[in-house]
Structure formats: C-alpha cells, structure tokens
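tool_call predict_complex ligand=nicotinamide-adenine-dinucleotide
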Amino acid sequence: MTDQRPIAVLGGGSFGTAVANLLAENGHPVRQWMRDPEQAEAIRVNRENPRYLKGIKIRPEVEPVTDLQATLDDSELFFVALPSSALRTVLAPHAERLSGKLLVSLTKGIEAQTFKLMSEILQDIAPKARIGVISGPNLAREIAEHALTATVVASEDEELCQRVQAALHGRTFRVYASADRFGVELGGALKNVYAIIAGMAVALGMGENTKSMLITRALAEMTRFAVSQGANPMTFLGLAGVGDLIVTCSSPKSRNYQVGFALGQGLSLDEAVSRLGEVAEGVNTLKVLKAKSQEAGVYMPLVAGLHAILFEGRTLEQVIELLMRGEPKTDVDFISTSGFN
Ligand SMILES: NC(=O)c1ccc[n+]([C@@H]2O[C@H](COP(=O)([O-])OP(=O)(O)OC[C@H]3O[C@@H](n4cnc5c(N)ncnc54)[C@H](O)[C@@H]3O)[C@@H](O)[C@H]2O)c1
Ligand SMILES: O=P(O)(O)OC[C@H](O)CO
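tool_result ok
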C-alpha cells in the first residue's frame, strides 16, 4: 500500500519551492512549511512564490502551510531547506516530534559555533530520526524550469536513499545514491566559498585560463581539507564535489557567485549581501573554514586569500600577488612524487 501522507518541505525559499514542485510533479501531496503567512497566502492564491521563484507556476498538489507542529506531526518524510543560520533554532523546540522521521537536509552550510554540518545538527536534535542529505549541481531556478539535472542523496541508511530516489527521481531530475553522507554534504558547503572567488574573477575581467585554474585549485583545496576531516576524497570527483563546484563557480545564477561579482565591481561585503537579498551561505562558511583550516594546519591559500580581502583589510592586488608568487607546489596532492628523479 502506498503512503498517502504528505511529504513535507521545510522552507519557503527558492530551493524549497523547486523541490516541492518536483515532488508534486511525481504525484505526491506536498506540504511546504514557511514562516511567513503572507507569503503562504500569496502562494495559495496566485500559485507562485513571487519573491524567491518569480514566474514559476506552483502545482496544485503543493499546499503552503505555516503551522510547523502540525506539519511535523502529519508527515514522515521531510526535506529541510532552511538557511543554515536558522535550521537549529527552527527545529530544536520540536525535537520530540522528529523521532523516527526521515529528515533529509538540502541546506549547504556549516554551523558557526560548532563547525557542524546540517545533518549533524539534525542528528543532535533528533538522535532517533533517520538522516540523509541531498547535494549536487542544483540551481533552484534551473530545476524549476526543468533543465535536465542530477543530484545525490547520501545516507548510511540505504532504505532512506531508496525512498528519496522514489519520491524525487523523474523525467528531468536524476537522483544518484551515495553512502558517504559526510563527503557529499561537505562538498556542498565548501564550494560556496570558491564561487565567491570565481564571481570576483569574472567581474575583474579575468580570462578562461584563470577560471580553470581557480576551479581546479579550489577542488585541490577542498579535497585536502576534506581528507583532514576524515572524508573520502573520491566523493569529490562526483556530482556533489566537482559537479557542484563547476556549476556554482560558472553560473551568474548562483547567489554566492553574485556576491563575488558584486565585490569584484567594488561593492562592500554588506552592500553585496544586501543587494542579493537571498541566502549566500559561502560568506559564513568562509569565516568558519578559515578558522578550522588554521586549527587543523591545512594549507588553503584561496580561503586564506578571500578571508584576508573580506575581513583583514588586504587589497585584491596584494592577495593576487601573494597567491601567484607563492612557492610552486605539486599538481595533485594524492599522487606520489616519488616518480621524480
Ligand atoms: N537556491 C538554490 O539554488 C539552492 C540549491 C541547492 C541548495 N540550496 C541550499 O538551500 C538552503 C536554502 O536556500 P534557498 O535557496 O531556498 O534560500 P532563499 O534565500 O531562496 O530563501 C530562504 C528562505 O528561508 C526563510 N528563512 C530565513 N530565516 C528563517 C527562519 N529563521 N525561520 C524560517 N524560515 C526562514 C526565508 O523566509 C526564505 O523563505 C541554503 O542552504 C542553500 O545553500 C539552495
Ligand atoms: O545559489 P547558490 O550559490 O547558493 O548555489 C546554489 C546551489 O548550491 C548550486 O548547486
């Protein structure tokens, strides 16, 4: 017998809305929880999320709701698309309602005080819940416009992965599975920082060689850090690693890229973030990542360089000079250099 309970999406932003619509297209009743009653009413009446996904028709199977307790009680499978800064605050007061539920984080961020990933926070809050993550090259607007897209669901819980694949896999959206939750989730969080740098480089008129160098060295840096934290570097060769890094560092649709582009045009960080008016997780991730990499003794020159520009008063020219004149290194960390004579 099929489960007729609604699937719930928590978060009224662009990604929550895109995923709610995908689930609805696959025939599932969906409840999309959002905190703003006016936004919920606007969606109910106009079938559109005008602030976060203008021009996209929201399917009738998606019911916008604002009662979080009822939403948590009535569903078993949840997709959590809240900003990383809000996830713990929103869900912690409802811990007992989450026991035994399937909680899948879509959020690509790191908690400032604890350096925890979002699925680790979910586990803290609800140790008896079944936890997974979704991550990959997934620009919300492109998903909503049915661009052919792939993602990864990752969890140690194989049955959860299968449930998510069955719910989301569709005509324009492929869902691959992975058992490496930590690697998949870390890839999604780290790449946002490099998208800021890539946006800056484009605004400064840098060429294709530069973009390619940035993306490739970013992958080296991310992987080096991930390995220091116990992750499997092979995961970074997949959709949630290099796949997401490429899309976020290449697309003007990425909000992190847009923040970088605005910085490259000469705006301050505050101006760039407020001009965006949406979540750009890379800004917070940069702060915690810089501190963590220093603590762990991991060489991350791009992270250190962006941090120096945004928070230590260095100019872009100073940082570029420092990066380019730095001691030459070997290309790929994980290949032995013993082949040199
Ligand atoms: N947009 C994308 O293309 C995309 C793709 C993949 C993953 N993600 C991830 O999804 C997460 C959510 O991003 P988004 O793109 O949907 O953001 P968004 O900027 O489009 O919207 C943020 C939403 O969160 C809500 N919100 C903010 N603070 C809240 C709080 N305290 N309580 C309840 N709701 C609150 C806002 O009202 C808004 O509805 C981010 O971590 C992002 O990295 C986004
Ligand atoms: O718009 P961004 O920069 O938050 O990126 C969106 C997605 O993470 C891309 O996969």
